[in-house]
């Protein structure tokens, strides 16, 4: 089910808005400390506490408008809630920094499990958006599996070895750019294994 169409700008705002607001909030509060209930919380934890309900709300609005959320979107909201909640509850930013690792390991693991069974689970998710022959789906799935695992490893390296500032920039811009560039570089596979429309065959 693809869901009801909505304005592309609104869709992008709902998907990227929480991430952008997290980044802006972090820049504003990163050097501040807040005493709440006798416990001191730094700006990162405070912004994380705001980000969790914000992404849940934006996803709910997207679902209400389209009648559909992808399994990836649902998994992302769940993991953000779990790891963001742990960071706030335990006042420890490491849990939230682990969240991208868990997300990409989950996606890569699911796709990899499908490959072991000789199937492309990516096809089940994206076949309404892309018309590819099975060979194309398998190639794209193998590459995306490796890509997700690579992002998980990279996130671990960044948050464990670099400053929080560096990780926030990486999460906000680096991961988004990496996903965009990955699909841009797959143009050859998408064109080589595309299924032509019947009208094009007749022409």
From TrEMBL:
<feature type="transmembrane region" description="Helical">
    <location>
        <begin position="167"/>
        <end position="184"/>
    </location>
</feature>
<protein>
    <recommendedName>
        <fullName>Inner membrane-spanning protein YciB</fullName>
    </recommendedName>
</protein>
<dbReference type="InterPro" id="IPR006008">
    <property type="entry name" value="YciB"/>
</dbReference>
<keyword id="KW-1133">Transmembrane helix</keyword>
<comment type="similarity">
    <text>Belongs to the YciB family.</text>
</comment>
<keyword id="KW-0997">Cell inner membrane</keyword>
<feature type="transmembrane region" description="Helical">
    <location>
        <begin position="41"/>
        <end position="62"/>
    </location>
</feature>
<feature type="transmembrane region" description="Helical">
    <location>
        <begin position="74"/>
        <end position="90"/>
    </location>
</feature>
<dbReference type="GO" id="GO:0005886">
    <property type="term" value="C:plasma membrane"/>
</dbReference>
<dbReference type="Pfam" id="PF04279">
    <property type="entry name" value="IspA"/>
</dbReference>
<feature type="transmembrane region" description="Helical">
    <location>
        <begin position="143"/>
        <end position="161"/>
    </location>
</feature>
<keyword id="KW-0812">Transmembrane</keyword>
<keyword id="KW-1003">Cell membrane</keyword>
<comment type="function">
    <text>Plays a role in cell envelope biogenesis, maintenance of cell envelope integrity and membrane homeostasis.</text>
</comment>
<feature type="transmembrane region" description="Helical">
    <location>
        <begin position="102"/>
        <end position="122"/>
    </location>
</feature>
<feature type="transmembrane region" description="Helical">
    <location>
        <begin position="12"/>
        <end position="29"/>
    </location>
</feature>
<keyword id="KW-0472">Membrane</keyword>
């Amino acid at each position: 089910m693809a869901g009801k169409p909505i304005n592309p700008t609104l869709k992008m705002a709902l998907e990227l808005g929480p991430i952008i607001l997290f980044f802006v909030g972090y820049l504003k509060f990163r050097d501040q400390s807040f005493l709440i209930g006798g416990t001191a919380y730094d700006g990162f934890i405070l912004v994380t506490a705001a980000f969790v309900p914000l992404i849940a709300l934006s996803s709910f609005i997207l679902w209400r408008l389209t009648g559909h959320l992808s399994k990836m979107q649902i998994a992302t909201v769940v993991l953000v809630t779990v790891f963001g909640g742990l960071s706030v509850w335990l006042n420890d930013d490491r849990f939230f920094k682990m969240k991208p690792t868990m997300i990409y390991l989950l996606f890569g693991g699911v796709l990899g499990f499908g490959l072991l069974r000789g199937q492309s689970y990516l096809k089940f998710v994206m076949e309404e958006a892309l018309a590819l022959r099975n060979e194309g789906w398998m190639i794209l799935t193998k590459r995306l599996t490796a890509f997700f695992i690579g992002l998980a490893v990279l996130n671990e390296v960044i948050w464990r070895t670099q400053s929080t500032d560096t990780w926030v920039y990486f999460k906000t811009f680096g991961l988004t750019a990496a996903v965009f560039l990955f699909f841009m570089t797959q143009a050859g596979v998408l064109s080589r294994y595309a299924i032509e429309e019947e009208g094009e065959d007749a022409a």
